[in-house]
Specification:
A hairpin with a 2-residue loop joins strand 3 and strand 4. This protein has a six-stranded antiparallel sheet with strand order 4-3-6-1-2-5. It has a five-stranded parallel sheet with strand order 9-8-7-10-11, with helices on both faces. The two termini are 17 Å apart. The chain is α/β, with parallel strands linked by helices and 273 residues long. The protein contains nine helices and eleven strands. Bound molecules: adenosine-2'-5'-diphosphate. Adenosine-2'-5'-diphosphate (A2P) binds next to strand 8, helix 7 and helix 9.
Length: 273
């Protein structure tokens, strides 16, 4: 595929920003693998969201805006916005988005939404965040939000990827929290990170669904099996992963919740394209 003439493309984008959307400036881009990258951009002054929500992110492609849903990976208190993205070679948005550089313009629709929010869960002791691939993004927001630790005594972030290189974003997040001026005190030892891979050798191996089913997740963490009296769950991954994980939580007796009717677990598809 021909790479678009970048400077021209973004000059055009600046000139034709659609009405009623934010046009923000890219501040930093980090590529992890040939499939994954993250970027940070300016946050519009009036833009409010709850940690865990997603927004529609876009670029001008030719003279048309192309949008996809993206979980906001930064917490609600952050002055900037962060996103973690897959690179789909022919993806209508990500084939372009993966080429952004600091100074470029990214579009964002004004209204965030989503179900992976603390308000959709009833109070309990322990919160599990089950993620695969870029499904870690909403949890990147929630694990950096002090409210998560006000509501739960223990927060377990599971992240399963094909190989170890794809886990790096998660490791960086935990490192950042442990070295953050105020977060590390709030988080203390409440956050447990459980990274696993399915296609390479590593300390922890296997699909999270298998590890729940055979109990290894709980033995490794030193916690009892899932119990609706103390455990809550949030799930973000592919459609198949959502279904399989949801089935296991329901089997353990947890009931799905929503913004209108808080419950014991919530789910959201990790968006691609
Ligand atoms: P696997 O390697 O066995 O397919 P992807 O990169 O394709 O989005 O996958 C991310 C991770 O999610 C991979 O480790 C993959 O394992 C795992 N995965 C895929 N489908 C499911 C599923 N139905 N339940 C649990 N994990 C899954």
């Amino acid at each position: 595929m021909n790479a678009p003439a970048k400077t021209e493309e973004f000059a055009v984008a600046q000139a034709k920003i659609p009405d009623g959307v934010y046009a923000e400036t890219v501040l930093a881009v980090e590529h992890y693998t040939d499939r994954l990258f993250r970027f940070r951009m300016t946050r519009p002054a009036g833009f409010r969201f709850r940690s865990g929500e997603f927004a529609m992110i876009g670029l001008m492609v030719g003279d048309k805006p192309v949008y996809r849903a993206y979980s906001i990976a930064s917490p609600a208190w952050d002055e900037e916005l962060e996103f973690f993205s897959i690179k789909v070679p022919d993806g209508p948005l990500t084939s372009h988005l993966q080429m952004i550089k600091p100074g470029d313009t990214v579009l964002m629709r004004k209204k965030p939404t989503g179900t992976l929010v603390l308000d959709a869960l009833t109070p309990a002791k322990r919160l599990y965040m089950f993620s695969t691939g870029t499904g870690i993004a909403p949890f990147a927001s929630l694990i950096r939000d002090p409210e998560t630790y006000e509501k739960f005594d223990e927060v377990i972030l599971t992240h399963t990827c094909r190989d170890v290189a794809e886990l790096k974003y998660g490791f960086d997040l935990v490192h950042e929290i442990n070295n953050h001026e105020f977060l590390h005190e709030i988080v203390g030892d409440k956050l447990k990170h459980y990274p696993t891979v399915t296609r390479e050798d590593f300390k922890y191996r296997g699909r999270i669904t298998d590890l729940i089913e055979n109990g290894k997740l709980f033995t490794d963490l030193g916690v009892p099996a899932l119990d609706p009296a103390v455990d809550r769950g949030m799930i973000c991954g592919s459609t198949a992963m959502l279904k399989d994980t949801k089935d296991l939580l329901e089997k353990a007796g947890l009931v799905e919740g929503s913004n209108n009717k808080p419950g014991e677990f919530v789910i959201e598809r990790a968006f691609v394209g």
